[in-house]
Design a protein that fits this description.
133 residues, 6 strands, Nuclear Transport Factor 2, Chain: A
């Protein structure tokens, strides 16, 4: 499986709600750079993040385009996040099932067939505007 194919499989697992499959693809020491947040180091914190996100949000990624860099082990993707805000997330507006759509991008590093870094960016102020904050 190429790095690009692995990231396509990662997004397919995300869209299928298959956190276990996503966890199988990441390295034990994965560095997860959260949008406008810190770095969560390790598979356990990545799993914790995904559990939290599943509780608060129902999201599907659409119009995914995956780009493989000329440098081995580097992959990027752009996509549209289509979601529903299910449960109030700390420090954010109150949730009441609001729907949102916004562009986002993720950047990955891979080594030996495992994802070692995930960095995701989206426009948080635009998301807050869409959910009525």
């Amino acid at each position: 499986m190429t790095d690009k194919q692995r990231i396509e499989a990662y997004f397919a697992a995300f869209n299928g709600g298959d956190t276990a499959a996503m966890l199988e693809m990441v390295d034990e020491q994965v560095a997860h750079h959260v949008n406008q947040g810190g770095v969560r180091q390790g598979k356990a914190l990545f799993e914790e993040f995904n559990t939290h996100m599943t509780r608060c949000y129902r999201e599907t990624l659409e119009d995914i385009v995956v780009f493989e860099a000329a440098v081995p082990g580097r992959v990027a993707a752009e996509f549209i996040v289509s979601g529903e805000y299910l449960a109030t997330d700390e420090g954010l507006p109150e949730a009441s099932g609001q729907r949102y759509r916004l562009p986002a991008a993720s950047f990955f590093e891979l080594r030996d067939g495992r994802i070692t870094r995930i960095t995701t960016y989206y426009n948080l102020p635009e998301w807050i505007r869409q959910v009525g904050g």
